[in-house]
Amino acid sequence: MEVTQLAVDQIIKAFLFILFAFFSVFLTLALFFYFSRKKIVKIAVEKKNQEIHYQKEILQSVIQTQEDERMRIAQDLHDDISSKLNIVSLNTHLLKTPNLSESEYNEIIDNVVNLTAKALENSRRIAHDLLPPVFEKFGLHAAIEELVNEFSSAKNVQVKYTNSLDFSYLEVNYQLHIFRILQELLNNSIRHGKASEISINFVENNSKNTCFYSDNGVGFDMKSTNKKRGIGMQNIDSRVNFLGGKINIHSEINKGVQIDFNF
Ligand SMILES: Nc1ncnc2c1ncn2[C@@H]1O[C@H](COP(=O)(O)OP(=O)(O)OP(=O)(O)O)[C@@H](O)[C@H]1O
Ligand SMILES: [Mg+2]
């Protein structure tokens, strides 16, 4: 009888022990999942915050570029058009002066003709800077060819451009972003890199439209430049972002710059 009672006690003890062990394991697992979930949520929130911060930076640089563009156009209009039309206006008023000699009359007319010709030429240049006419008429490929030729002839640099993509199916907006990216890259290669050779190559890479860009200039230190990225590179970032693509930038001092972006 006593032996049976002892066995029952032991079974109960063992049962309680197993129950306790189960409970401990359950509690540990529950705590583990609770905290790891909290950590995952925290990481996700941090990532989202970073994304928002990045979007804000992009927006800021877009606004900044717009303002810079406006200021540049305003200056161009003021210096190259308004000031000339002002003098044209003054000269035409002078024509009303009574008793003008023939030579005075001719001088005024010459002034008016010259100044209007200059104002016309400047207004063409301003319009060209805003949107090259070749772009509207013949699309991105022709516009890049023209850009490359302009750089090659004016800036003492050899620019090699090859393209195996068809841009015609791209929205004009997209084409314009790609054009502006190349303008900035070329300007940087000349201004900062002092490059003598530049290569631009559009190909399909991993079934994505990709542009490979490189120069043989002085390059830059990626670590220090990342901190002082100018508006130019930020704009490129936001344009590539708009194109739904990714950009890779690589450079080392004295080893030029290698950049690729897809869209
Ligand atoms: N091709 C290049 N060769 C050498 N350094 C370069 C090149 N491209 C960019 N850099 C470096 O990266 C920096 C940032 O370039 P970014 O275009 O953003 O600004 P920026 O050209 O100085 O000014 P901006 O806002 O007028 O473009 C440059 O100041 C330069 O130091
Ligand atoms: Mg720049």
Characterise this structure:
The protein folds into two domains: 2-127, no CATH class; 134-262, Histidine kinase-like ATPase, C-terminal domain (Heat Shock Protein 90, 2-Layer Sandwich), CATH 3.30.565.10. The model has no long low-confidence stretch (mean pLDDT 90). Strands 1-2-3-5-4 form a five-stranded mixed β-sheet, with helices on one face. α3 runs parallel beside α4 (172-191). The protein contains six helices and five strands. The termini are far apart. It is α+β, with helices and mostly antiparallel strands and 263 residues long. The structure holds adenosine-5'-triphosphate and magnesium ion. The site of magnesium ion has 5 residues, from α4. The site of magnesium ion (MG) has 5 residues, from α4.
Structure summary:
The chain is α+β, with helices and mostly antiparallel strands. Helices cover 69% and strands 13% of the residues. It has a five-stranded mixed β-sheet with strand order 1-2-3-5-4, covered by helices on one side.
